[in-house]
Amino acid sequence: MILRPLLLLPLLLASLHVQAEASRYPLTIQSCNRQVVFNEAPRHAVSHDINMTQMMLALGLKPRMVGYSGISGWKSVTPDMARILDGLPELAAKYPSVETLLDANVDFFFAGWDYGMRVGGDLTPQTLQPLGINVYELTESCAFVMKRPAASLEDTYNDLRNLGKIFDVQDRANALIATMQAQVAEVRKHLPTRQPRVFLYDSGEDRAMTSGRLGMPQALIDAAGGRNILDDVDASWTRVNWENVVERNPQVIVIVDYGEVSAEQKQQFLLSNPALQSVDAIKHRRFVVIPYVQATPGIDNVLAVQTLAQSFHSQ
After folding, report:
1. Which end is more exposed in the chain, N or C (fewer Cβ atoms within 10 Å of the end residue's Cβ)?
2. 298 CB contacts (<8 Å, ≥6 apart)?
3. 78 and 159 co-located in one domain
4. Whole domain around residue 170: which residue ranges?
5. 51 and 293 in contact (C-beta within 8 Å)?
6. How far apart are CA 242 and CA 192, in angstroms?
């Protein structure tokens, strides 16, 4: 499993106590605004993006996978994850095509809207289902295709729970969820009442790519005892004008680290941006960096909450 030592022991203990019934097929799973029927556990699965691939591997599903996609084109992996990925082919460095999935005899695709799929694109549940490929959509990403409440850590737990049912590994999923919940609860026990104003910066110069209330950063900032300055914006990953950031005056800026522009380069851009010089976080140089895999739904959300809580309340 791709778990840090702090996650591993509690997971092993939890696995002794968390039991679940075996899946009974045909199995119906809710995925966004659709119901997906599985006649059996998938045997030739593909996950898209690093966070969803990490979820699959953490549940011990590598033997059921024929590959993954969407990692090396944008992100880097830790040595631990590289070792676990060894022997599992990357079918596409960025976006797979329908032909790529068909050539690999894929029967299950775990992806999300704006995480490998886009509305009206070639790769969607509607295009793949007639070809015998069931799609399970990342819960957080459902905001792109339906109305839904603000993002929460329950979105990640829901995905793990559903993967457990789909692949008949509910005991593993429940144990992992219990461990993550316990670790978040431990962080929250020690939070002060003060909630610093927080702005998440993903990328962009003319306008900022960030997260409104429907993106996972909303849940992470909440759990860590902060307040997303865009928590009234009814959007997931979205772009905003710098004027909006200045007006809301964040006290802390969270930088998402991935891609060709390093976190240090992003920080230097923010510090040198004339429009931001009156912002408290800029004046006091209060930045915290988290990798992409922690900022998006997945098992490393716990690490993000721990890092953010420590940074938000260290001063």
Report:
1. C
2. 50, 51, 52, 54, 55, 156
3. yes
4. 5-183
5. yes
6. 29
Residue-wise pLDDT tens digits, 244-262: 999 999 999 999 999 889 9
pLDDT digits (tens, 9 = 90+) for 184-208: 999 999 899 999 999 999 999 999 9
Number of domains in the chain: 2
Same-domain check for residues 167 and 208: no
Q: Does residue 31 sit in the same domain as residue 154? A: yes
What CATH number corresponds to the domain at position 283?
Answer: 3.40.50.1980
Domain boundary among 157, 183, 209: 183
List CB contacts of 12: < 8 A, sequence separation 6 or more: none
Say if residue 118 is in the same domain as residue 159: yes
Are residue 76 and residue 144 in the same domain, yes or no?
yes
